């Protein structure tokens, strides 16, 4: 494009002004340390930058290891000997020294490592690490741990064997969806190779904060390191914290390095252009170097990332899958546990349904509900997963706040724990004030027949009261109106526990509804519990007053459902139980008929039964009210769908209370 003759003089004046300003600052004789000729910045300051990032990465790796260890041991108590990514071995124990079953001052986390490659470290670790918890502060959902870590019992292997002396003081602050780490060495730490001193880190402080909702990290450090091989001492100070989105290069931040005998140099990040590069800056001179040549990835990495050296360049339009944060639960995954999926940007919505799928036949799909908290998704199955089986999260589509979309796939499997198996059975998933279901923990068990303890509790906050909160069977008295969520916790004699939950719907105001409970693998209900009421759709009575042996009801909303019943012998339907029912309208003479279908799904064959509790017609035979419970096995299935239908009646839902 040609310059406009109107704007050209203005552009020229601005250019001259900027040149004058730059000359007055950069080329001033008042800055004698800045060379007039372009220096070789990376060659001159590369060793200082390497020393800075070496100690920053190592110190923060120990802090991140504390964070990982705490999350795992606080949930599962110990880690049996397991195989590391390189084939080495790792085990870990939580020493609960006061027996409180809560992390407290005086407790210890101990790791034993045999040539183990951990995700946070560039080196292979051999030996043991003991995290000694000196102080714990807890306030509501916030927790702060102060920890001391000795370094003399660990060997770092990286083309040779390296050892450290002295100890670290670590502080870890945990708040919902956010954690902050601080590492301080109050005394100098020496790195030895073949018993020869190679590096000395003088008292220094490093910090890292990860905000899962913002999908953002921040890292900083200040101190002094001596590189004895290169006979160089480097002071470093963070001008601006390194900042960026998770698994992306920093797009903000700068640090000033001052090697002994040399003028300071600034290391600085880039925005969009060259964001994979770090700048060496001195006055007007700039040289660029690859970030991956400087850092091993501790800056941008979070727990669950298996490839920290594959970050993305920064762009405002980025949206990617980062990690499954609680992947460490594989093998100990709770049967109704929440999977935490971290994305690289906050999202607005999920466009498709979310479900878990078994990885081997018989294939089952379990629906899940999702909670969106910025870039963090918490995904929980709507009903328990099967203990001992392996599942994966099905892919789904998410839309970011920045307008981009992403097909999210974790590409990882997880196995559900079978150490403790809670089994919660409710008479139904519905209740009214004076019509509540019985609850049972029958079938709950622990591996190898260990004794178990039962605990019923409310997750919602309605004020319900359990009749026998520590017994196998219980009832309850509802509190305030509204749906309730209950939990069953089962604990074995070793202190291992697992929890299962269920939501009970308040049906106090509904005289028209269909409720069904479909187990995993059942075709019509797709393994879901559904409550379809006149608040969300409408009922149509398709019964013919001249055919009193048949009742046909239809429910319409965005998806359609229908229930057909027939006596089978030509006599009018009446209150009572009808057993041996087959698929209506293909049931043979003398066989009752039943057919529950919906959302375009139907059965080829049906075996089942139904019981009519209430049936009212007017003088002309028109249906006025119906209360019926039904059971249906679809196409020779082994697990039945069980349902309830109420039409113009408040007839009790939960009958034969235990």
In words, what does this structure look like?
With 658 residues, the protein is mainly beta. The protein folds into 4 domains: 41-96 and 106-293, no CATH class; 321-415, Immunoglobulin-like (Sandwich), CATH 2.60.40; 420-506, Immunoglobulin-like, CATH 2.60.40; 512-647, no CATH class. The longest helix is centred in the first third of the chain and has 36 residues, at 41-76.
List how many beta strands DSSP finds.
Answer: 49
Largest sheet: 10 strands, antiparallel, barrel
Uncertain ranges: 1-31
- Judged by helices, strands and strand pairing, the structural class is mainly beta
Shape: elongated
Signal peptide: 1-20
InterPro entries: Ig-like_fold
Keywords: Signal
Task: List the main descriptive attributes of the protein structure presented here.
mainly beta, ten-stranded mixed sheet, Immunoglobulin-like, 2 helices
Summarize the structure.
The protein has 658 residues and is mainly beta. The chain starts with 7 loop residues before the first helix and ends in an 11-residue tail after the last strand.
Task: Outline the fold blueprint.
Elements: H1 8-26, H2 41-76, E1 78-83, E2 89-95, E3 108-117, E4 124-139, E5 142-150, E6 154-157, E7 161-164, E8 167-175, E9 178-184, E10 189-193, E11 196-201, E12 205-211, E13 216-227, E14 232-245, E15 252-259, E16 265-268, E17 277-282, E18 285-290, E19 321-324, E20 339-343, E21 347-350, E22 354-358, E23 365-373, E24 376-381, E25 390-393, E26 396-400, E27 405-408, E28 413-415, E29 420-421, E30 425-426, E31 430-431, E32 439-440, E33 445-446, E34 452-458, E35 465-466, E36 473-474, E37 476-477, E38 484-492, E39 497-506, E40 512-517, E41 529-533, E42 538-541, E43 550-556, E44 560-566, E45 576-583, E46 593-598, E47 606-617, E48 623-634, E49 641-647
Parallel strand pairs: 31-39, 45-46
Antiparallel strand pairs: 1-2, 2-3, 3-4, 4-5, 4-6, 5-8, 6-7, 7-10, 8-9, 9-12, 10-11, 11-13, 12-13, 13-14, 14-15, 15-16, 16-17, 17-18, 19-20, 20-24, 21-26, 22-23, 22-25, 23-24, 25-28, 26-27, 29-33, 30-32, 32-36, 34-38, 35-37, 38-39, 40-41, 40-49, 42-43, 43-44, 44-46, 45-47, 47-48, 48-49
